[in-house]
């Protein structure tokens, strides 16, 4: 018999938060009575969309296709995100669940737009001036289901601002558990990630966000236990405090190379693509220019080449992948002197070993088990075993 499972992703929850969440009763109870790993390595770049795709596919970004949060759209000031199921190039956990006859639900889970999910409210933004947020969401997911949720709980919303959005998602989760009882449910919370970006990893606002997550988790956990659900909790990446942002676009413009490359920020890392296939001499010129920038600013730690894509898992179409030095991040914007004060206090996107996160599954019939160190790509297999599906 298949078991019911709810998977909760607390965006940006990581090993650095363990000291605080072990002092929160619901988090502590679940962690102390679960199959768990407190040493989960995410994928590179350590962004929300690539890692959520890896959780549900068991594959690296260069395999599943979600290589960044946003797409390469050079002529748009606000590129679209990888919102749609069609962007993922392989099977997902919710596809396999459907094939095995399970009912599915997703609430603001990344890259689920137009997915074949029974109850689906995808994470998607109104990214054009003429678009309306509710209409965009309705047409990318389950229309009648979402209409019911918006009519019942939209009073909690203030656009997509936090903590309002996660309060809305909490009520949607509880309603769905009680009234729809899906076999497999995915829920994505972003309050913590938002506070880390704006205020930094050690801020009061981050501590308050974790307290709000504790209250959300308590309510969902109590409801899930009454309905005999297993509950999985995970993070997708950590966050690193930064002080400065780097504009490679400005540097390449001043060096006459901007017409050769397309620079794409991943916040805590960055891609460099060729605009068109170039000769070895052009590629070498770009590389040497980066080496000069690295040497004289000390703001770049590594310059990875296409040869590193297989091992690290980033987009194999990129000519280079840049890893910043501690305290730095990247921007697509133009900055006159190449480096400026960052508008964010913390970012992610850097190498996976800098962003260890956690994973656990609570089942009242299973004893506490430490999985030790695992990779985020292993989570799909663990969840399939829990659901008894393949």
From TrEMBL:
Keywords: Hydrolase. Its EC number is 3.1.4.1, 3.6.1.9. This is Alkaline phosphodiesterase I / Nucleotide pyrophosphatase. CDD domains: Enpp. SUPFAM superfamilies: Alkaline phosphatase-like. It is an enzyme of class 3 (hydrolase). It holds the Pfam family Phosphodiest. GO terms for molecular function: nucleoside triphosphate diphosphatase activity; phosphodiesterase I activity. The keyword Acyltransferase does not apply. Gene3D superfamilies: Alkaline Phosphatase, subunit A.
């Amino acid at each position: 018999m298949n078991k019911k499972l709810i998977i909760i992703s607390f965006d940006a929850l990581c090993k650095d938060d363990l000291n605080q969440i072990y002092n929160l009763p619901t988090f502590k109870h679940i962690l102390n009575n679960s199959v768990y790993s407190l040493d989960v390595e995410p994928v590179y770049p350590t962004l929300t969309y690539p890692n959520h795709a890896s959780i549900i596919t068991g594959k690296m970004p260069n395999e599943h296709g979600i290589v960044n949060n946003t797409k390469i759209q050079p002529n748009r000031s606000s590129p679209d995100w990888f919102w749609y199921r069609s962007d993922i190039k392989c099977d997902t956990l919710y596809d396999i669940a459907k094939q095995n006859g399970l009912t599915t639900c997703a609430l603001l889970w990344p890259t689920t737009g137009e997915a074949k999910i029974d109850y689906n409210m995808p994470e998607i933004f109104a990214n054009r001036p003429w678009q309306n947020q509710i209409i965009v969401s309705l047409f990318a997911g389950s229309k009648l289901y979402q209409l019911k949720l918006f009519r019942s709980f939209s009073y909690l919303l203030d656009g997509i601002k936090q903590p309002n959005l996660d309060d809305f998602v909490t009520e949607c989760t509880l309603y769905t558990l009680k009234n729809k009882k899906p076999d497999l449910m995915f829920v994505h919370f972003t309050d913590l990630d938002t506070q880390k970006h704006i205020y930094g990893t050690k801020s009061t606002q981050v501590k308050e966000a974790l307290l709000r997550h504790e209250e959300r988790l308590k309510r969902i956990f109590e409801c899930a236990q009454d309905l005999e659900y297993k509950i999985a909790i995970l993070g997708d990446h950590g966050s690193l405090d930064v002080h400065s942002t780097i504009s490679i676009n400005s540097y390449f413009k001043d060096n006459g190379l901007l017409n050769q490359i397309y620079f794409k920020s991943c916040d805590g890392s960055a891609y460099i693509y060729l605009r068109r296939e170039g000769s070895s001499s052009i590629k070498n010129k770009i590389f040497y220019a980066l080496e000069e920038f690295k040497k004289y600013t000390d703001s770049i730690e590594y310059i990875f080449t296409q040869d590193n894509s297989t091992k690290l898992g980033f987009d194999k179409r990129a000519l280079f992948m840049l890893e910043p030095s501690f305290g730095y991040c990247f921007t697509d914007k133009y900055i006159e002197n190449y480096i400026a004060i960052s508008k964010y206090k913390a970012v992610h996107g850097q190498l996976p070993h800098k962003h260890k996160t956690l994973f656990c599954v609570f089942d009242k019939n299973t004893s506490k088990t430490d999985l030790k160190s695992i990779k985020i790509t292993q989570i799909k297999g663990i969840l399939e075993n829990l659901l008894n599906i393949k």
